[in-house]
Amino acid sequence: MRTVKQRRIIALIIDLIIVFIGYNLLINLLNLNTEERHLWHFRIRIYWRTIVLTSCYLAYFWCFDLLKRGVTPGKLLSSIKVVSEDGHPLSLKTRML
User: CB 11: neighbour CB atoms within 10 A?
Assistant: First the structure.
């Protein structure tokens, strides 16, 4: 039996793998993989990749939080259930904090 900390780390790794898969698909769809020789092209490409990665990360967790009440695939596979201190499901206000 794994400890709670180990299950949380496994859940995070699973979720991050899914986020990076979505990120790579989006990068390929937006065609941000082009090779450019100028430094300013490189900087713009890095900025866009950072924006896209941050957006993917936030969208992933917010969507699962709003639509599935905080149950991400990583938490589901690791058998983690997020509840309030009294054992009830979290309210929307509590989940957004």
Answer: 19
Model pLDDT for residues 19-63, shown as the tens digit of each residue: 999 988 888 887 766 666 666 677 777 888 899 899 999 999 888
Cα distance between the two ends of the chain:
31
Q: Is 32 helix (H, G, I), strand (E, B) or coil?
A: coil
Cβ atoms of residues 36 and 45 within 8 Å? yes
Question: For the chain, how many residues are written?
Answer: 97
Q: Which of 48, 57, 50, 45 is nearest to 20 (CA)?
A: 57
Q: Provide the CA 39 distance to its chain's centre, in angstroms.
A: 30
Three-class SS state of 83: strand
- Non-local CB neighbours of 80 within 8 Å, separated by 6+ positions: 4, 7, 8, 11, 74
- Report the predicted TM-score, pTM, of the whole model to 2 decimal places: 0.75
